[in-house]
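Posted in: Structural Biology > Protein-Ligand Complexes

Title: Requesting predicted complex, adenosine-5'-triphosphate in pocket

I'd be grateful if someone could produce the 3D structure tokens for the following input. Sequence and ligand are given below.
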Amino acid sequence: MTAELKALGVYARHGSKVVLEDVTMEARPGAVTVVLGPNGAGKTTLLRVLAGLHVPAQGRVFIGNRDVYKLPRMERARLIAYVPAVLESPGLGQTVEEFVAASRYPLHPGPRLGPQPGDLEEAQRQLRRVEAEKLAQQSLGKLSSGEKQRTLLAHALARDADVLLVDEPTSFLDLRGRLLVYKLLHEEARRGRVVVAATHDMMLAGLYADQVVLLSQGRIVAQGPPKDILHPRLLERVFQVKVEMTRLGDKHIPVPVDIT
Ligand SMILES: Nc1ncnc2c1ncn2[C@@H]1O[C@H](COP(=O)(O)OP(=O)(O)OP(=O)(O)O)[C@@H](O)[C@H]1O
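-- Reply #1 --
Done. Output follows.
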């Protein structure tokens, strides 16, 4: 059973600029936690801090009682899969299938010897899940933005990690792709993983979040279940837009209708 992911009193900087201040949050297994905030709020930095990729200036990050920054690198890679918002890989000569399979290297002890038995099959399985199986033999450098985004998610899913951290996972996707990705994130959560997704889209948060962490100017403004956090007054203050609520089944969805 996966343990919860916790940030305690985290401060983070880029150079001399402090971009996260006193962030304390928890993401529990079984739930999709959405980090919601406008451009520049610190979402990417927070996800990278949680992933063990951006050392906090202060504070700590734990999976259960294990300090993420004290884990050996390969063990951390086995535990945490991080999906950046954009693919900036130097290995653009690789095929999509090779790239996705390479995500499984941390699962195999010893030197890197190329794909191990089962890795390519797992890559193909994850490419099918993101509806990108036709891309398997294409060069990574020749994909559209949306195709790259699907490939990045398949890459993370192939790691089979306890913790899945995804940064703006649907920014380049068509409507079916968006619905598919959040469906997959819920499937992963239901399998007992910790799933954290960052977005600036309050409607997506209303539709898909089990928990919301609302971030503004590097600080957490509120966190909890969507029904407690996604209130027009709070959202209007953070996003500086006028918000109306609409109902969809048992969900209350915030809809931005104008700028303020
Ligand atoms: N490499 C960097 N060097 C200096 N400042 C940075 C760097 N990366 C981010 N920042 C600054 O840190 C702050 C938080 O950035 P971050 O990318 O974490 O925000 P975000 O909420 O993910 O934004 P967006 O929604 O626009 O992607 C911003 O003010 C940004 O200008």
